[in-house]
Amino acid sequence: LGNETDTDGNSNSRPGASDDSPQDAPADSDKAIVASGFGRFNIILLIFAIFATCANMFESTTMSYILPIAECDLHLTLTDKGVLNACAYAGMIISAIPWGYLADTKGRRNVLLYGYFCTCICVLGSALSQNFIMLVTFKFLGGLMVNGPAAVLFTYLTEMHGPKYRSHVLMAVGMITSATLLLLPVLAWAIFPRDWDFLLFGSLAIHSWQIFLFACALPSFISGLVLLVMPESPKFLISQGRNAEALQVLQKMYYMNTGKPKNTYPIKSLILEVPSRDAQKDEAIYTIDSKSETTEPVKPSSRTLLESLRAGMLQMKPMFHKPLLGLALQIYIMQYSMFLGLNTIRLWLPQLFSSMADYEAEFDGQDVSATMCTILDYSINKTAETLTNHENACAEPKVVSMDMYINNIIVSACGLVGYFLAGSTIRLIGTKRLLTYCLFISGILGICLYWSVNSLMTLLVSSAFVTVACVSFSSLLSAVVAHFPTQLRSIVVSITMMCGRLGSISGNLLFPIFIQIGCLPPFVMVAAVMISGFHCIAFRDYCLIKYS
Protein backbone atom coordinates (compact mmCIF):
# COMPACT_ATOMS: atom_id res chain seq x y z
CA LEU A 1 0.00 0.00 0.00
CA GLY A 2 2.01 2.92 -1.22
CA ASN A 3 1.51 6.66 -1.25
CA GLU A 4 -0.27 8.54 -4.01
CA THR A 5 0.55 12.04 -5.21
CA ASP A 6 -2.25 14.46 -6.05
CA THR A 7 -2.17 17.14 -8.73
CA ASP A 8 -0.72 19.68 -6.27
CA GLY A 9 2.23 17.45 -5.47
CA ASN A 10 1.02 16.57 -2.01
CA SER A 11 1.45 13.05 -0.76
CA ASN A 12 -1.73 11.25 0.30
CA SER A 13 -1.91 7.79 1.78
CA ARG A 14 -4.80 5.39 1.52
CA PRO A 15 -6.28 3.90 4.70
CA GLY A 16 -3.95 1.35 6.14
CA ALA A 17 -0.89 2.80 4.44
CA SER A 18 2.25 3.15 6.50
CA ASP A 19 3.21 6.72 7.33
CA ASP A 20 6.08 8.02 9.39
CA SER A 21 4.11 11.00 10.74
CA PRO A 22 3.54 10.93 14.49
CA GLN A 23 -0.24 11.13 14.10
CA ASP A 24 -0.43 7.96 11.96
CA ALA A 25 1.93 5.97 14.17
CA PRO A 26 0.26 3.41 16.48
CA ALA A 27 -0.52 5.03 19.85
CA ASP A 28 -0.74 3.61 23.34
CA SER A 29 -3.83 4.13 25.51
CA ASP A 30 -2.56 7.24 27.32
CA LYS A 31 -1.60 9.01 24.11
CA ALA A 32 -4.96 8.11 22.54
CA ILE A 33 -6.94 9.44 25.51
CA VAL A 34 -4.93 12.68 25.54
CA ALA A 35 -5.69 13.12 21.83
CA SER A 36 -9.44 12.92 22.56
CA GLY A 37 -9.17 16.22 24.45
CA PHE A 38 -10.87 17.53 27.57
CA GLY A 39 -14.31 19.08 27.34
CA ARG A 40 -18.01 18.30 27.45
CA PHE A 41 -17.56 14.54 27.76
CA ASN A 42 -15.37 14.99 30.85
CA ILE A 43 -17.85 17.45 32.36
CA ILE A 44 -20.62 14.87 31.92
CA LEU A 45 -18.35 12.32 33.62
CA LEU A 46 -17.88 14.59 36.63
CA ILE A 47 -21.63 15.25 36.85
CA PHE A 48 -22.18 11.49 36.78
CA ALA A 49 -19.52 11.16 39.49
CA ILE A 50 -21.54 13.47 41.76
CA PHE A 51 -24.62 11.23 41.68
CA ALA A 52 -22.56 8.01 41.79
CA THR A 53 -20.56 9.19 44.81
CA CYS A 54 -23.80 10.18 46.55
CA ALA A 55 -25.18 6.70 45.93
CA ASN A 56 -22.00 5.09 47.33
CA MET A 57 -21.84 7.23 50.44
CA PHE A 58 -25.58 7.18 51.14
CA GLU A 59 -25.66 3.38 51.26
CA SER A 60 -23.01 3.21 54.00
CA THR A 61 -23.92 6.36 55.96
CA THR A 62 -27.71 6.83 56.06
CA MET A 63 -28.20 4.47 59.02
CA SER A 64 -26.19 6.71 61.33
CA TYR A 65 -28.71 9.53 60.78
CA ILE A 66 -31.89 7.52 61.29
CA LEU A 67 -30.75 5.75 64.49
CA PRO A 68 -31.76 8.58 66.88
CA ILE A 69 -35.10 8.95 65.04
CA ALA A 70 -36.03 5.30 64.48
CA GLU A 71 -35.00 3.79 67.82
CA CYS A 72 -38.59 3.90 69.13
CA ASP A 73 -40.16 2.60 65.92
CA LEU A 74 -37.70 -0.30 65.65
CA HIS A 75 -37.03 -0.92 69.41
CA LEU A 76 -33.26 -0.57 68.93
CA THR A 77 -30.58 -1.45 71.49
CA LEU A 78 -27.03 -0.09 71.36
CA THR A 79 -25.90 -3.36 69.78
CA ASP A 80 -28.70 -3.11 67.19
CA LYS A 81 -27.45 0.34 66.27
CA GLY A 82 -23.94 -1.01 65.80
CA VAL A 83 -25.27 -3.84 63.61
CA LEU A 84 -27.23 -1.41 61.42
CA ASN A 85 -24.12 0.71 60.93
CA ALA A 86 -22.07 -2.38 60.07
CA CYS A 87 -24.42 -4.60 58.02
CA ALA A 88 -23.93 -2.73 54.73
CA TYR A 89 -20.18 -3.23 55.08
CA ALA A 90 -20.71 -6.97 55.59
CA GLY A 91 -22.41 -7.17 52.20
CA MET A 92 -19.58 -5.16 50.66
CA ILE A 93 -16.96 -7.57 51.99
CA ILE A 94 -18.68 -10.66 50.60
CA SER A 95 -19.01 -9.14 47.13
CA ALA A 96 -15.58 -7.49 46.87
CA ILE A 97 -13.63 -10.10 44.90
CA PRO A 98 -16.51 -11.18 42.59
CA TRP A 99 -17.19 -7.56 41.65
CA GLY A 100 -13.49 -6.93 41.03
CA TYR A 101 -13.25 -9.99 38.82
CA LEU A 102 -16.33 -8.95 36.84
CA ALA A 103 -14.99 -5.41 36.38
CA ASP A 104 -11.64 -6.67 35.07
CA THR A 105 -13.18 -9.26 32.72
CA LYS A 106 -16.66 -8.02 31.73
CA GLY A 107 -16.03 -4.28 31.78
CA ARG A 108 -16.28 -1.23 34.04
CA ARG A 109 -19.52 0.10 32.52
CA ASN A 110 -21.49 -3.11 32.99
CA VAL A 111 -20.59 -3.31 36.67
CA LEU A 112 -21.53 0.33 37.20
CA LEU A 113 -24.80 0.10 35.25
CA TYR A 114 -26.29 -3.03 36.84
CA GLY A 115 -24.78 -2.29 40.24
CA TYR A 116 -26.47 1.10 40.62
CA PHE A 117 -29.89 -0.10 39.45
CA CYS A 118 -29.76 -3.04 41.90
CA THR A 119 -28.64 -0.68 44.67
CA CYS A 120 -31.67 1.53 44.00
CA ILE A 121 -34.00 -1.45 44.45
CA CYS A 122 -32.36 -2.37 47.77
CA VAL A 123 -32.61 1.19 49.09
CA LEU A 124 -36.31 1.28 48.24
CA GLY A 125 -36.70 -2.01 50.11
CA SER A 126 -35.02 -0.59 53.21
CA ALA A 127 -37.31 2.46 53.03
CA LEU A 128 -40.32 0.15 53.26
CA SER A 129 -38.90 -1.85 56.20
CA GLN A 130 -41.23 -2.33 59.16
CA ASN A 131 -38.87 -3.96 61.66
CA PHE A 132 -35.21 -4.39 62.55
CA ILE A 133 -34.73 -7.71 60.71
CA MET A 134 -36.22 -6.40 57.48
CA LEU A 135 -34.07 -3.26 57.60
CA VAL A 136 -30.88 -5.22 58.30
CA THR A 137 -31.61 -7.59 55.41
CA PHE A 138 -32.08 -4.83 52.84
CA LYS A 139 -29.08 -2.87 54.11
CA PHE A 140 -26.96 -6.01 53.78
CA LEU A 141 -28.21 -6.57 50.22
CA GLY A 142 -27.62 -2.90 49.44
CA GLY A 143 -24.01 -3.24 50.56
CA LEU A 144 -23.72 -6.38 48.43
CA MET A 145 -24.86 -4.45 45.35
CA VAL A 146 -23.15 -1.07 45.81
CA ASN A 147 -19.66 -2.40 46.48
CA GLY A 148 -18.97 -3.16 42.81
CA PRO A 149 -19.77 0.27 41.37
CA ALA A 150 -18.26 2.02 44.41
CA ALA A 151 -14.84 0.44 43.77
CA VAL A 152 -14.99 0.57 39.97
CA LEU A 153 -16.03 4.25 39.90
CA PHE A 154 -12.50 5.48 40.70
CA THR A 155 -10.99 3.21 38.05
CA TYR A 156 -13.56 4.19 35.42
CA LEU A 157 -13.05 7.91 35.97
CA THR A 158 -9.24 7.79 35.92
CA GLU A 159 -9.16 5.58 32.82
CA MET A 160 -11.29 8.13 30.97
CA HIS A 161 -8.67 10.86 31.56
CA GLY A 162 -5.08 11.33 30.48
CA PRO A 163 -2.16 11.40 32.95
CA LYS A 164 -2.39 15.20 33.22
CA TYR A 165 -5.88 15.15 34.70
CA ARG A 166 -5.98 11.88 36.69
CA SER A 167 -4.73 13.28 40.00
CA HIS A 168 -7.11 16.23 39.63
CA VAL A 169 -10.02 13.86 38.99
CA LEU A 170 -9.21 11.84 42.12
CA MET A 171 -9.05 14.98 44.20
CA ALA A 172 -12.34 16.14 42.68
CA VAL A 173 -13.96 12.83 43.64
CA GLY A 174 -12.59 13.30 47.15
CA MET A 175 -14.19 16.74 47.35
CA ILE A 176 -17.45 15.33 45.97
CA THR A 177 -17.33 12.64 48.68
CA SER A 178 -16.89 15.25 51.37
CA ALA A 179 -19.65 17.36 49.85
CA THR A 180 -21.88 14.28 49.87
CA LEU A 181 -21.32 13.95 53.61
CA LEU A 182 -22.41 17.58 53.85
CA LEU A 183 -25.57 16.84 51.88
CA LEU A 184 -26.80 14.08 54.20
CA PRO A 185 -27.29 16.21 57.35
CA VAL A 186 -28.89 18.93 55.22
CA LEU A 187 -31.30 16.36 53.79
CA ALA A 188 -32.02 15.03 57.28
CA TRP A 189 -32.63 18.58 58.49
CA ALA A 190 -35.16 19.09 55.70
CA ILE A 191 -37.07 15.82 56.27
CA PHE A 192 -36.88 14.62 59.88
CA PRO A 193 -38.74 17.53 61.58
CA ARG A 194 -41.73 17.05 59.25
CA ASP A 195 -44.82 15.19 60.47
CA TRP A 196 -45.09 12.73 57.59
CA ASP A 197 -46.44 9.63 59.36
CA PHE A 198 -48.99 7.74 57.24
CA LEU A 199 -50.01 4.26 56.03
CA LEU A 200 -48.96 3.09 52.57
CA PHE A 201 -51.24 0.54 50.85
CA GLY A 202 -53.24 0.42 54.05
CA SER A 203 -50.69 -1.62 56.02
CA LEU A 204 -47.16 -0.23 55.65
CA ALA A 205 -46.41 2.40 58.29
CA ILE A 206 -44.25 5.18 56.84
CA HIS A 207 -42.38 7.66 59.05
CA SER A 208 -40.11 10.60 58.30
CA TRP A 209 -36.95 8.47 58.49
CA GLN A 210 -38.37 6.23 55.73
CA ILE A 211 -39.06 9.26 53.53
CA PHE A 212 -35.41 10.13 54.11
CA LEU A 213 -34.41 6.69 52.76
CA PHE A 214 -36.70 7.09 49.73
CA ALA A 215 -34.88 10.33 48.89
CA CYS A 216 -31.54 8.54 49.25
CA ALA A 217 -32.52 6.11 46.47
CA LEU A 218 -32.53 8.86 43.83
CA PRO A 219 -28.73 9.14 43.25
CA SER A 220 -28.32 5.44 42.42
CA PHE A 221 -31.31 5.57 40.04
CA ILE A 222 -29.98 8.67 38.26
CA SER A 223 -26.51 7.13 38.02
CA GLY A 224 -27.95 4.07 36.29
CA LEU A 225 -29.85 6.24 33.82
CA VAL A 226 -26.70 8.23 32.92
CA LEU A 227 -24.72 5.03 32.37
CA LEU A 228 -27.20 3.89 29.73
CA VAL A 229 -25.60 6.41 27.36
CA MET A 230 -21.99 6.23 28.59
CA PRO A 231 -19.34 4.13 26.79
CA GLU A 232 -17.00 1.48 28.12
CA SER A 233 -13.54 2.55 29.30
CA PRO A 234 -11.23 2.61 26.24
CA LYS A 235 -8.30 1.65 28.44
CA PHE A 236 -10.16 -1.50 29.49
CA LEU A 237 -11.03 -2.32 25.89
CA ILE A 238 -7.39 -1.94 24.86
CA SER A 239 -6.25 -4.16 27.74
CA GLN A 240 -8.63 -6.84 26.42
CA GLY A 241 -7.34 -6.57 22.85
CA ARG A 242 -10.57 -4.92 21.61
CA ASN A 243 -8.79 -2.02 19.94
CA ALA A 244 -11.39 -1.40 17.23
CA GLU A 245 -14.08 -0.82 19.87
CA ALA A 246 -11.67 1.37 21.84
CA LEU A 247 -11.09 3.57 18.78
CA GLN A 248 -14.82 4.03 18.34
CA VAL A 249 -15.14 5.15 21.98
CA LEU A 250 -12.19 7.51 21.61
CA GLN A 251 -13.71 9.01 18.47
CA LYS A 252 -16.95 9.63 20.35
CA MET A 253 -15.06 11.33 23.21
CA TYR A 254 -13.13 13.43 20.68
CA TYR A 255 -16.34 14.52 18.95
CA MET A 256 -18.05 15.48 22.22
CA ASN A 257 -15.00 17.35 23.54
CA THR A 258 -14.03 19.26 20.41
CA GLY A 259 -17.18 19.32 18.27
CA LYS A 260 -15.12 18.14 15.28
CA PRO A 261 -16.13 15.20 13.04
CA LYS A 262 -15.12 11.77 14.32
CA ASN A 263 -13.03 11.04 11.23
CA THR A 264 -10.69 13.93 12.14
CA TYR A 265 -9.57 12.17 15.32
CA PRO A 266 -5.77 12.21 14.93
CA ILE A 267 -5.10 8.67 16.19
CA LYS A 268 -5.73 6.06 13.48
CA SER A 269 -4.32 2.93 15.12
CA LEU A 270 -3.61 1.57 18.58
CA ILE A 271 -0.89 -0.65 19.93
CA LEU A 272 -2.22 -3.98 21.16
CA GLU A 273 -0.86 -3.56 24.68
CA VAL A 274 -1.94 -6.90 26.19
CA PRO A 275 -2.50 -9.39 23.35
CA SER A 276 -4.43 -12.54 24.08
CA ARG A 277 -3.85 -15.88 22.37
CA ASP A 278 -6.75 -15.26 20.04
CA ALA A 279 -5.61 -11.74 19.24
CA GLN A 280 -2.06 -12.86 18.44
CA LYS A 281 -3.43 -14.88 15.54
CA ASP A 282 -4.74 -11.69 13.99
CA GLU A 283 -3.00 -8.38 13.37
CA ALA A 284 -1.31 -6.80 16.39
CA ILE A 285 -2.77 -3.42 15.45
CA TYR A 286 -6.40 -2.66 14.65
CA THR A 287 -7.27 0.38 12.58
CA ILE A 288 -10.26 2.47 11.57
CA ASP A 289 -10.68 3.82 8.07
CA SER A 290 -10.57 7.59 8.50
CA LYS A 291 -12.95 8.18 5.59
CA SER A 292 -15.61 5.50 5.99
CA GLU A 293 -15.28 5.11 9.77
CA THR A 294 -15.80 1.35 9.44
CA THR A 295 -14.00 -1.01 11.76
CA GLU A 296 -12.16 -4.19 10.95
CA PRO A 297 -13.91 -7.17 12.52
CA VAL A 298 -12.65 -8.48 15.81
CA LYS A 299 -12.85 -12.22 16.28
CA PRO A 300 -15.01 -13.07 19.30
CA SER A 301 -13.51 -15.39 21.90
CA SER A 302 -15.48 -18.58 22.45
CA ARG A 303 -14.41 -19.51 25.95
CA THR A 304 -16.18 -21.86 28.29
CA LEU A 305 -16.89 -20.83 31.89
CA LEU A 306 -13.94 -22.89 33.13
CA GLU A 307 -11.60 -21.30 30.58
CA SER A 308 -12.82 -17.82 31.56
CA LEU A 309 -12.15 -18.55 35.24
CA ARG A 310 -8.70 -19.92 34.40
CA ALA A 311 -7.92 -16.83 32.33
CA GLY A 312 -9.09 -14.61 35.19
CA MET A 313 -6.82 -16.42 37.66
CA LEU A 314 -3.85 -16.09 35.29
CA GLN A 315 -4.64 -12.38 34.98
CA MET A 316 -4.50 -12.00 38.78
CA LYS A 317 -1.29 -14.05 39.16
CA PRO A 318 1.08 -11.02 39.36
CA MET A 319 -0.76 -9.87 42.50
CA PHE A 320 0.76 -12.78 44.44
CA HIS A 321 4.38 -12.10 43.51
CA LYS A 322 6.93 -9.35 44.19
CA PRO A 323 6.90 -6.38 43.94
CA LEU A 324 3.10 -6.04 43.90
CA LEU A 325 2.48 -8.46 46.78
CA GLY A 326 4.40 -6.47 49.39
CA LEU A 327 2.85 -3.16 48.36
CA ALA A 328 -0.65 -4.66 48.25
CA LEU A 329 -0.38 -6.21 51.75
CA GLN A 330 0.77 -2.94 53.25
CA ILE A 331 -2.06 -1.03 51.58
CA TYR A 332 -4.61 -3.56 52.85
CA ILE A 333 -3.41 -3.19 56.46
CA MET A 334 -3.41 0.59 56.28
CA GLN A 335 -6.90 0.64 54.75
CA TYR A 336 -8.24 -1.63 57.51
CA SER A 337 -6.80 0.64 60.18
CA MET A 338 -8.02 3.87 58.59
CA PHE A 339 -11.59 2.68 58.05
CA LEU A 340 -11.86 1.17 61.52
CA GLY A 341 -11.01 4.52 63.06
CA LEU A 342 -12.68 6.84 60.56
CA ASN A 343 -16.01 5.06 60.07
CA THR A 344 -16.42 4.21 63.73
CA ILE A 345 -16.27 7.87 64.76
CA ARG A 346 -18.03 9.17 61.63
CA LEU A 347 -21.02 6.83 61.89
CA TRP A 348 -21.51 7.33 65.63
CA LEU A 349 -21.22 11.12 65.53
CA PRO A 350 -24.94 11.74 64.77
CA GLN A 351 -25.88 9.57 67.77
CA LEU A 352 -23.36 11.39 69.99
CA PHE A 353 -24.52 14.82 68.84
CA SER A 354 -28.16 13.81 69.34
CA SER A 355 -27.38 12.62 72.89
CA MET A 356 -25.52 15.87 73.59
CA ALA A 357 -28.49 17.94 72.40
CA ASP A 358 -30.93 15.87 74.51
CA TYR A 359 -28.68 16.08 77.57
CA GLU A 360 -28.25 19.85 77.33
CA ALA A 361 -32.00 20.32 76.78
CA GLU A 362 -32.89 18.14 79.78
CA PHE A 363 -30.43 19.84 82.13
CA ASP A 364 -30.77 23.34 80.71
CA GLY A 365 -29.83 25.97 83.29
CA GLN A 366 -28.25 23.46 85.66
CA ASP A 367 -24.57 23.46 86.52
CA VAL A 368 -23.67 20.16 84.83
CA SER A 369 -20.67 19.26 82.69
CA ALA A 370 -21.26 17.70 79.27
CA THR A 371 -18.03 15.71 79.13
CA MET A 372 -17.71 12.83 76.68
CA CYS A 373 -18.01 10.26 79.46
CA THR A 374 -21.14 11.95 80.80
CA ILE A 375 -22.76 11.95 77.36
CA LEU A 376 -21.96 8.28 76.77
CA ASP A 377 -23.48 7.31 80.14
CA TYR A 378 -26.57 9.39 79.35
CA SER A 379 -26.94 7.71 75.92
CA ILE A 380 -26.71 4.23 77.45
CA ASN A 381 -29.38 5.06 80.06
CA LYS A 382 -31.76 6.63 77.52
CA THR A 383 -31.50 3.59 75.23
CA ALA A 384 -32.20 1.25 78.14
CA GLU A 385 -35.21 3.34 79.14
CA THR A 386 -36.60 3.16 75.60
CA LEU A 387 -36.58 -0.64 75.81
CA THR A 388 -37.75 -1.17 79.41
CA ASN A 389 -40.37 1.60 79.48
CA HIS A 390 -41.25 1.86 75.80
CA GLU A 391 -44.79 3.24 76.16
CA ASN A 392 -43.76 6.21 78.28
CA ALA A 393 -40.40 6.87 76.64
CA CYS A 394 -41.88 6.77 73.11
CA ALA A 395 -45.28 8.29 73.86
CA GLU A 396 -44.42 11.42 71.90
CA PRO A 397 -42.62 11.64 68.55
CA LYS A 398 -38.85 12.03 68.76
CA VAL A 399 -37.84 15.69 68.47
CA VAL A 400 -34.20 16.15 67.50
CA SER A 401 -32.55 19.43 68.36
CA MET A 402 -31.23 21.61 65.55
CA ASP A 403 -27.82 21.36 67.20
CA MET A 404 -27.53 17.77 66.01
CA TYR A 405 -27.97 18.77 62.36
CA ILE A 406 -25.78 21.87 62.63
CA ASN A 407 -22.94 19.94 64.27
CA ASN A 408 -22.99 17.26 61.57
CA ILE A 409 -23.07 19.92 58.85
CA ILE A 410 -20.03 21.61 60.42
CA VAL A 411 -18.09 18.32 60.56
CA SER A 412 -18.87 17.63 56.88
CA ALA A 413 -17.99 21.20 55.84
CA CYS A 414 -14.61 20.89 57.56
CA GLY A 415 -13.95 17.73 55.56
CA LEU A 416 -14.69 19.59 52.34
CA VAL A 417 -12.23 22.36 53.28
CA GLY A 418 -9.63 19.70 54.08
CA TYR A 419 -9.84 18.27 50.56
CA PHE A 420 -9.25 21.72 49.07
CA LEU A 421 -6.17 22.16 51.24
CA ALA A 422 -4.90 18.66 50.47
CA GLY A 423 -4.24 19.47 46.81
CA SER A 424 -1.72 22.20 47.53
CA THR A 425 -0.25 20.23 50.45
CA ILE A 426 0.47 17.23 48.22
CA ARG A 427 2.46 19.43 45.83
CA LEU A 428 4.50 20.82 48.75
CA ILE A 429 5.32 17.69 50.76
CA GLY A 430 4.32 14.74 48.53
CA THR A 431 1.61 12.10 48.86
CA LYS A 432 3.57 9.70 51.07
CA ARG A 433 4.47 12.35 53.63
CA LEU A 434 0.92 13.69 53.66
CA LEU A 435 -0.39 10.17 54.31
CA THR A 436 2.13 9.62 57.11
CA TYR A 437 1.42 12.90 58.88
CA CYS A 438 -2.36 12.57 58.57
CA LEU A 439 -2.39 9.08 60.08
CA PHE A 440 -0.33 10.19 63.08
CA ILE A 441 -2.38 13.36 63.65
CA SER A 442 -5.69 11.49 63.37
CA GLY A 443 -4.50 9.00 65.99
CA ILE A 444 -3.74 11.83 68.42
CA LEU A 445 -7.11 13.46 67.74
CA GLY A 446 -8.89 10.14 68.31
CA ILE A 447 -7.65 9.84 71.89
CA CYS A 448 -8.26 13.55 72.50
CA LEU A 449 -12.00 12.92 72.19
CA TYR A 450 -11.83 11.15 75.55
CA TRP A 451 -10.79 14.41 77.25
CA SER A 452 -13.56 16.47 75.65
CA VAL A 453 -15.22 18.57 78.37
CA ASN A 454 -18.12 20.13 76.43
CA SER A 455 -20.04 19.93 73.17
CA LEU A 456 -17.93 22.64 71.50
CA MET A 457 -14.67 20.81 72.13
CA THR A 458 -16.24 17.56 70.91
CA LEU A 459 -17.33 19.31 67.73
CA LEU A 460 -13.88 20.81 67.08
CA VAL A 461 -11.91 17.61 67.74
CA SER A 462 -14.29 15.37 65.78
CA SER A 463 -14.27 17.80 62.83
CA ALA A 464 -10.48 17.79 62.73
CA PHE A 465 -10.35 13.99 63.07
CA VAL A 466 -12.79 13.28 60.23
CA THR A 467 -11.09 15.82 57.94
CA VAL A 468 -7.56 14.48 58.45
CA ALA A 469 -8.67 10.83 58.18
CA CYS A 470 -10.56 11.50 54.92
CA VAL A 471 -7.46 13.10 53.37
CA SER A 472 -5.46 10.00 54.39
CA PHE A 473 -7.94 7.74 52.63
CA SER A 474 -7.87 9.82 49.44
CA SER A 475 -4.05 9.79 49.40
CA LEU A 476 -3.89 6.03 49.80
CA LEU A 477 -6.45 5.34 47.09
CA SER A 478 -4.63 7.58 44.62
CA ALA A 479 -1.51 5.45 45.15
CA VAL A 480 -3.47 2.26 44.41
CA VAL A 481 -4.89 3.60 41.15
CA ALA A 482 -1.56 5.05 40.01
CA HIS A 483 0.73 2.08 40.67
CA PHE A 484 -1.14 -1.08 39.72
CA PRO A 485 -1.53 -2.23 36.08
CA THR A 486 -4.85 -1.75 34.32
CA GLN A 487 -5.83 -5.42 34.29
CA LEU A 488 -5.36 -5.67 38.07
CA ARG A 489 -6.47 -2.22 39.15
CA SER A 490 -10.13 -2.89 39.81
CA ILE A 491 -9.58 -6.04 41.82
CA VAL A 492 -6.85 -4.39 43.92
CA VAL A 493 -9.16 -1.45 44.62
CA SER A 494 -11.94 -3.92 45.48
CA ILE A 495 -9.76 -5.87 47.93
CA THR A 496 -8.50 -2.62 49.42
CA MET A 497 -12.05 -1.44 49.96
CA MET A 498 -12.96 -4.88 51.33
CA CYS A 499 -10.26 -4.56 53.99
CA GLY A 500 -11.55 -1.07 54.80
CA ARG A 501 -15.10 -2.36 55.16
CA LEU A 502 -13.86 -5.16 57.43
CA GLY A 503 -12.37 -2.43 59.59
CA SER A 504 -15.70 -0.57 59.54
CA ILE A 505 -17.57 -3.67 60.69
CA SER A 506 -15.04 -4.32 63.45
CA GLY A 507 -15.20 -0.74 64.72
CA ASN A 508 -18.99 -0.39 64.66
CA LEU A 509 -19.55 -3.72 66.42
CA LEU A 510 -16.84 -3.11 69.03
CA PHE A 511 -17.71 0.53 69.76
CA PRO A 512 -21.05 -0.13 71.59
CA ILE A 513 -19.44 -3.03 73.47
CA PHE A 514 -16.54 -0.86 74.62
CA ILE A 515 -18.94 1.95 75.56
CA GLN A 516 -20.71 -0.38 77.98
CA ILE A 517 -17.36 -1.47 79.43
CA GLY A 518 -16.15 2.07 80.06
CA CYS A 519 -15.54 5.51 78.61
CA LEU A 520 -11.86 5.17 77.69
CA PRO A 521 -11.69 1.85 75.71
CA PRO A 522 -13.52 2.99 72.52
CA PHE A 523 -11.23 5.98 72.04
CA VAL A 524 -8.08 3.97 72.79
CA MET A 525 -9.21 1.55 70.06
CA VAL A 526 -9.62 4.37 67.51
CA ALA A 527 -6.29 6.01 68.35
CA ALA A 528 -4.38 2.71 68.32
CA VAL A 529 -5.50 1.64 64.85
CA MET A 530 -4.82 5.03 63.27
CA ILE A 531 -1.30 5.20 64.73
CA SER A 532 -0.69 1.59 63.61
CA GLY A 533 -1.23 2.79 60.04
CA PHE A 534 1.43 5.43 60.64
CA HIS A 535 3.87 2.75 61.89
CA CYS A 536 3.11 0.66 58.81
CA ILE A 537 4.64 3.44 56.70
CA ALA A 538 7.43 4.39 59.08
CA PHE A 539 8.89 0.88 59.54
CA ARG A 540 8.14 -0.65 56.15
CA ASP A 541 9.00 2.24 53.86
CA TYR A 542 10.80 0.01 51.39
CA CYS A 543 7.50 -1.72 50.51
CA LEU A 544 6.00 1.46 49.13
CA ILE A 545 6.43 2.48 45.53
CA LYS A 546 7.57 6.09 45.34
CA TYR A 547 4.43 8.19 44.93
CA SER A 548 6.04 11.53 44.41
TrEMBL record:
Q: Does the keyword Transmembrane helix apply?
A: yes
Report whether Transport shows up as a keyword of the record. yes
Disordered: region residues: 1-28
Q: Name one GO cellular component term.
A: membrane
Q: Any idea which UniProt keywords this protein has?
A: Membrane, Transmembrane, Transmembrane helix, Transport
| GO molecular function per UniProt | transmembrane transporter activity
Q: So where does this one cross the membrane?
A: 41-58, 83-102, 114-134, 140-157, 169-191, 211-230, 324-349, 405-422, 434-453, 459-484, 491-514, 520-539
Which positions fall inside the Major facilitator superfamily (MFS) profile domain? 45-548
Question: Where is this chain compositionally biased, Low complexity type?
Answer: 15-26
Compartment(s) of residence = Membrane
Signal peptide span = none
* Annotated InterPro entries: MFS, MFS_dom, MFS_trans_sf
Q: Which domain of life is it from?
A: Eukaryota
Protein name, entry field? Major facilitator superfamily (MFS) profile domain-containing protein
Q: Which Gene3D superfamilies match?
A: MFS general substrate transporter like domains
Q: Which PANTHER family match?
A: EG:BACR7A4.13 PROTEIN-RELATED, SYNAPTIC VESICLE GLYCOPROTEIN 2
Q: How does it sit in the membrane?
A: Multi-pass membrane protein
